[in-house]
Amino acid sequence: MTVNRLQKSHLNRHFVKSNSRQISLETEQDRIYKFLGEFVQKWSPEDVLQEFKILFIDCLDSVDLNSVPSIYAIFSEDNEQEFRHTLKRCCYIIINNWDSQRKYKYIKELVELFLNYKIKIWTAESCSNKINIFQRWLINFVNSNDYEELNLFALRHNEQNKTHWTNRYTTYSLVAQSFDRKNPKEQQESALKLSKQMKDKFKFELAMYIARSQSAKSSETRYRNPTILGDNVLHLIKKIVLKKGAFSHENIANIFLKQTKNQTFKDFKDSLQKYLIFSVERQYFVETLKQQLSDKLLPWKKEYDEKPISKELLLRSCNRVIDCLTTEKGREPSQLFVLLLSQGNPLTLVVVLLKIILICKNARSHLEIRMAELIGYYNKYPEEECQWVINFIEIFNITFAIYAENVEYNLINMEQDEQTSQPMVNLDDYRVFSQLKVDGLRKGDGWDKG
Fold first, then answer.
1. Furthest-apart CA pair in the chain: how many Å?
2. How high is the pLDDT of residue 224?
3. Spatial contact of 314 and 359, defined as CB atoms under 8 Å apart
């Protein structure tokens, strides 16, 4: 690395000037963000990558060992967290711009700049101790959860590198990032956008796979199964779609909301418990769920028992039940989660979670954050030890894709050409049809054409 190359950095020249005056850290950070926002829109991705590398990485290996690199000079030696926040925000400013321009390969190259950096810790005799501190900051960043979150954006467009099983479910980690107020706003925006893209892609691929799997031309127009459950997934999908008509999950949810509209909070908690176990077929599951919910829900927030139910209390109650069913402390699975899944019917648990969201859509983000925490907990275990958890997540993905707002699935009896809500049917006689809803209207089912 030469001094001449450092001098080529546009922002580095700016800092040589600005650091001659006493300027607040916040002001300097704003200048960095503004510069990068303009630079990434005007210059080629190759030039942006080179500029970024000079600013944050190459400058730490400068031959001028006793000088403090310009961009690092704005931080005091005990301000590593502020440096990391600045570095993250710079990354996401660039990622947001490149994502909107579909320059996905450069996002991967940006993330990999850090991996390719080989740190050299200089001795105290040869350079300022500050250089060692800043080098350590960079290494700490690469080994941090912040970098793992950043790496999700590279993995998204490089699927062959998804070696760990949890990388199939990054959409939940992205949702958690998007709602974490400690993250830079650019990171929240990027995470929310990418999670939506991934959900939409899964919904589309699932609908196309269903259509092709049922088509007479399926052998010629085979479509990728977006799940890892194999072709048996079609039977599972039929089972999920089967409950339609007067006793559909949506209708029962609407009835529940109307009936509890004027209840006190105490009565509502009792009604909520009954609603969640209503129509659950497996008796041992019902008893387990009923007992656990009684212990966790009924004594909860007793000071509000005589108050009328409100939207706020509805949301807090649904979030409370979600915690009981997933991870109460945000760090490890709840006892109820492990107990219910150990009984061998993940679909039943997924349906209970679905029923919660059908009465309170605003609880969806809380549920997905809890899913991210569950996946994070099991991240340390190999795939072969987590098959029961993976099975649950796959069924969760399918169920919530089927009950998405913009796609409607129906089960049609090909012999009688009518739907059924009867519990005992031969699913082989039925086909699943999907309709894409556009602005509240249904656009004809064309998934299985062609």
1. 87
2. 80
3. yes
**DSSP classification of residue 307:** S
The residues with which 413 forms a beta bridge, in sequence order, are 430
**Judging by DSSP bridges, how do beta strands 441-443 and 407-413 pair with one another?**
unpaired
Beta bridge partners of 316: none
State pTM to two decimals: 0.81
Residue in the structure block whose two tokens are 């072969």: 384
DSSP H/E element including 37: helix 25-42
Strand partners, 430: 413
* Interacting residues of 35 by C-beta distance below 8 A, sequence separation 6+: 10, 11, 14
Let me know: does 312 contact 362? Beta carbons within 8 Å: no
For residues 237 and 291, give the distance between their C-alpha atoms in angstroms, rounded to a whole number: 30
The stretch 324-352 carries a mean pLDDT of: 88
How far is the C-alpha of 402 from the C-alpha of 106, rounded, in Å? 34
- What is the C-alpha to C-alpha distance for residues 437 and 20, in angstroms, rounded to an integer? 59
Domain coordinates of the chain in residue numbers?
A: 3-161, 224-404
Tokens describing residue 45: 């991705």
Go through 361-390 and write b for each residue having 16 or more CB atoms within 10 A of its CB, e for each that does not: eebeebbbbbbbbbbbebeeeeeeebeebb
| Paired tokens of 433 | 């049809």
Which single residue is written with the structure tokens 């679905």?
A: 354
Question: How many Å apart are CA 346 and CA 180, to the nearest integer?
Answer: 29
| Two tokens, residue 285 | 């599951």
pLDDT of residue 6 exceeding 60:
no
Tell me what the mean pLDDT of segment 392-404 comes to: 91
In 3D, which of 78, 53, 59, 91 has the Cα closest to residue 133? 78
